[in-house]
């Protein structure tokens, strides 16, 4: 059984429902790196995220946040434990099957934006849908690009955009197909506070309007406050959580994780 700590009752309560109703479920997932020096990046992590929830993941540098995203999405294999997406177990032993499984179900916004340099903004945003053979309505694409403030940059190539603009292309690309599960690693890291607020509002709306489930790694308490819940990682374990977070409360919780200065 998973700790009830990690299940958040939603309006129209999900209490009593089975794992089928979780957009993402991790059961005792562990991941270790390195041969010479071994690092336990994830240490027996269990969590359950119901559909239509927005979760922020925070923790000190090296606490395992990116590893959590990468293993939960099947980009990297876990050493042990089970990962279920929409009730189906993610199997990373067959890379082609794992890629097919992810396609259409899972979206990503990476720290490195992974845009194709020869394609325009418009083409980059539509590429995943094209690969998946599931066309996206032009009007919807245009709306998303307008919402992230790139309506007048459609024909630009990534090298002709600022870092923040490239980040917004990556966000538009991830949400335009409305994947059930969206992982975002520092999606507002390169944005000023006004743009960050727009992007976070957009992510919040995609959760509330389209029932998407968003998992976002961030160092920023203000960004985390847009989520329904914050999970705090330390040394590869979930050590705390905050429901309905406010920036001040998140910052206070984060301060508790800072390494204490040695007292002389
Ligand atoms: N490919 C790798 N090989 C070896 N060790 C790794 C590798 N990737 C991550 N680690 C180690 O695993 C731990 C967790 O790393 P991870 O990138 O998940 O942390 P993080 O919380 O996302 O950090 P940051 O906030 O600095 O991005 C760290 O100690 C890191 O050094």
TrEMBL record:
Record-given protein name: ABC transporter ATP-binding protein
Keywords attached to this entry: ATP-binding, Nucleotide-binding, Transport
Family annotation (PROSITE patterns): ABC_TRANSPORTER_1, ABC_TRANSPORTER_2
Keyword Cell cycle: no
Matches recorded under SMART domains: AAA
Example of a GO MF term: ATP binding
Superkingdom: Bacteria
Lineage, top ranks: Bacteria, Bacillati, Actinomycetota, Actinomycetes, Catenulisporales
The keyword ATP-binding is annotated on this UniProt entry: yes
All copies of domain ABC transporter, residue ranges: 24-260
CDD domains assigned to the protein according to its UniProt record, in alphabetical order: ABC_MJ0796_LolCDE_FtsE (cd03255)
């Amino acid at each position: 059984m998973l700790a009830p700590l990690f299940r958040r009752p939603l309006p129209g309560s999900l209490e009593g429902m089975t794992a089928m109703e979780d957009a993402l479920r991790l059961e005792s997932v562990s991941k270790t790196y390195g041969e010479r020096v071994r690092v336990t990046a994830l240490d027996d992590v269990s969590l359950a995220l119901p559909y239509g929830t927005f979760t922020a993941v925070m923790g000190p540098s090296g606490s395992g946040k990116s590893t959590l995203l990468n293993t939960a999405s099947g980009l990297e294999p876990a050493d042990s434990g089970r990962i279920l997406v929409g009730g189906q177990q993610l199997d990373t032993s067959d890379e082609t099957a794992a890629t097919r499984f992810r396609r259409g179900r899972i979206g990503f916004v990476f720290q490195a934006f992974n845009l194709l340099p020869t394609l325009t903004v418009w083409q980059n945003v539509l590429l995943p849908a094209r690969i998946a053979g599931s066309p996206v309505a032009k009007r919807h694409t245009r709306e998303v690009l307008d919402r992230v403030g790139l309506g007048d940059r459609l024909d630009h190539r990534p090298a002709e955009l600022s870092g923040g603009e490239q980040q917004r292309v990556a966000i538009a690309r991830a949400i335009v197909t409305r994947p059930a599960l969206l992982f975002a690693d520092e999606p507002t890291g390169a944005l000023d506070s006004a743009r960050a607020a727009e992007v976070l509002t957009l992510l919040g709306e995609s959760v509330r309007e389209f029932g998407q489930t968003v998992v976002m790694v961030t160092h920023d308490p203000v960004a985390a406050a847009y989520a329904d819940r914050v999970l705090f990682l330390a040394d590869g374990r979930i050590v705390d959580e905050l429901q309905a977070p406010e920036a001040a409360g998140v910052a206070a919780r984060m301060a508790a994780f800072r390494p204490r200065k040695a007292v002389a």
